[in-house]
Specification:
Mean pLDDT: 88
Helix content: over 70%
Number of strands: 0
Strand content: under 5%
Low-confidence stretches: 1-5, 201-210, 394-410
Order of helices and strands: HHHHHHHHHHHHHHHHH
Distance between the termini: 20 Å
Largest sheet: none
Structural class: mainly alpha
Number of helices: 17
Shape: globular
Oligomer: single chain
Length: about 400
Amino acid sequence: MDDALPVTRPPALRHGRAALAVSFFAQGALFAMLVTRIPAIQDRYGISDGLLPVFLAAVPILAGVGSVVTEQLVKRVRPSAVLRWVQPVVGLVLVGLGAGDRMWTAAVTLALFGVCVGGLDASMNMLGVSLQREYGQSIMLGFHASYSLGGILGACLAWSGAHWHVSLFSLYGPAVLALIPLTLVASRWYRDQRPAAEASGAAGAAGAGGGQVVMRMLLPLCLVMAFAYIGDSTVSNWSAKYLQDTLHSSEQLSTVPYAVYMVTTLIGRSVGDAGVRRFGAVAVVRLGTVVAMAGFAVVAVAPGAWVGMLGFTLLGLGLCVIVPQTFAAAGRMFPDASDSAIARLNIFNYVGFLVGSPLVGALGDAWSYRGAMLVPLLLVGATLLYARSFAAGPAGYGVGHERPRTVDVG
């Protein structure tokens, strides 16, 4: 057969890809509507400035718990079943948060949100890695691009709600009313082909290709995940303050960098899979790391707001490729235990999110915010030391290139 002959993928595979993209989109929208309305939630429940960090820290901690629980749960049920039912719960919890007005309601709903988000993130990425394995080429960045698109939509809805003084319940209710049926319908086409070792629950040989996850081997990817989210949380939590207080921008202009960051993240992820297919995951991750480091450097030395925004633009283009490729690399490293590997790796998503913002804030207060930007630069830069971990794959395959004889026309 001619190597250039296209191979059309089965409709079930293409439908599964589209369905999972819907799930990523919905999660991006819901999460953005939560994090961008934290001040309104604080006002509604009368949460003090001293108590707010406790509430915010509890969410990623409990999300890590949810990821651990999911690792055990998918030994008994398929990840698609977990995702199908936990995603509507996340939406309902968000509505409950918008409807309540007592402190205990905020505590309970945010705790439930954290646990469910951990299960949601883990199961979504399990399905993404499984589907990429069936496709035989990189498609993970596309799923995360859908998440970015949902985040942009969610942030726009939240801005509209704040601008028009819409209550949290009136904001969350209609959004969830639209998203829950959408994800439930899409879930009919979820597709997960579990490795034999995980499906049977049997323990395989330790090491790559076996049925068990060796944390010593997974650790480099865990560190990369944590460092990437330290960089991401630096942008999401400090970009506005940095532009306004350090680079002396106007209040209106200070809101722009995060929006630009999200748009460039979407762009980078939309084209990133093509780059992985052509050049391989290692090359794309290295390039993304260098671009992200350049972004932090530009932000740190920027003489004014517009140069600072250029730095945040570079950050979006650089950081956006690292996380999806880290999940994909874990699946390749442990092809017979990918669900467990992804659940454990997902915990370090929340570690980075939990550490990043307080770390930069403490360094900024004790030293300077310009100097504080050099710390995530160095941490993200450490990804270069672990770049070869992204090449792990059985029988020479898995570095991100297409399988021989396969051209995606689906």
